[in-house]
Specification:
Strand content: 35-45%
Structural class: alpha+beta
Number of strands: 15
Helix content: 10-25%
Radius of gyration: 20 Å
Shape: globular
Largest sheet: 8 strands, antiparallel
Length: 267
């Protein structure tokens, strides 16, 4: 099998980690007259389409978010990775509490696997570099090596999470292998904070991922509700212990995905 013109003057591989690569469209020429002007200025601002390309060697497997595959070539096979009724129920429970899809298809074989394009930034991380594993914010998971173990990380104080309007659980990843995450912020703008028996307080969902070794709670900004009201701050996300937090410099916004979805919907 030979694949030609995957890379050209308009698109190229910008990052590779393990069997995962990021294909970025520097100039997107596959546009219509209706959105050409918008696409042009988006490109000028660095807003490009990106795709994950996975090299399937026959020795590796890949787990994808449901519906993420665009095309594949070669002897690549798909399995649901459901081992029985109990495993299915467990996956459904995990899905209900982490807002991730219940069944993530697993791909194996030899060939090439290409994911659907996205306007978001794609972050590739080696899970083994996070000693105790990492926890990711809801909706960021795109794909990972089949060797990566998926679990659930719960906040310590459930009641404050509910009062603070936060979810109670997040997807946690551990073991060895690469994970691909979708982010509203480019990787080179993320603030990396290393905690050594310390704490970090963040007003909003600005943390992209964090070490599973950290204690994650939602707490009042001050000791009393009245004090929180006077200070203008309500509940904040608190990370305590020793580990790493990757934090966006601004609060993540749905405006980018909303705008790009409307562009894609045009004829």
């Amino acid at each position: 099998m030979e694949v030609l013109n995957l890379e050209n003057q308009s698109r190229s591989i910008t990052k590779t980690l393990g069997n995962f690569s990021v294909l970025e469209y520097k100039r997107d020429l596959s546009v219509s007259a209706y959105n050409a002007v918008t696409e042009y200025f988006m490109a000028e601002m660095g807003v490009h389409r990106r795709q994950v390309v996975i090299n399937m060697t026959g020795q590796n497997t890949a787990v994808l978010q449901a519906g993420a595959m665009q095309w594949m070539a070669g002897n690549v096979r798909i399995a649901t990775d459901v081992k029985g009724v109990g495993d299915f129920v467990g996956k459904m429970f995990k899905s209900s509490v982490t807002k991730e899809t219940a069944i993530k298809p697993k791909y194996s074989g030899t060939g090439i696997l290409v994911l659907e394009p996205t306007y978001k930034y794609i972050i590739l991380k080696e899970v083994s570099e996070w000693d105790s594993g990492l926890v990711i914010e809801d909706g960021m998971f795109l794909a990972c090596d089949g060797t990566v173990k998926q679990g659930i990380s719960a906040r310590k104080n459930i009641s404050s999470a509910v009062l603070g309007g936060e979810g109670m659980f997040n997807l946690s990843l551990s073991g060895n292998g690469v994970v691909a995450l979708e982010s509203n912020v480019p990787e080179d703008e993320l603030v990396e904070i290393h905690l050594n028996n310390d704490e970090l307080r963040i007003d909003g969902n600005m943390a992209v991922c964090w070490s599973d070794s950290l204690e994650f709670t939602v707490e009042k900004a001050t000791k009393s509700l009245i004090g929180s009201a006077v200070s203008g701050e309500g509940f904040v996300n608190v990370y305590r212990g020793t580990g790493t937090v990757l934090m966006a410099p601004i609060t993540s916004s749905a405006s980018l995905s909303s705008a790009t979805n409307s562009i894609s919907a045009k004829p």
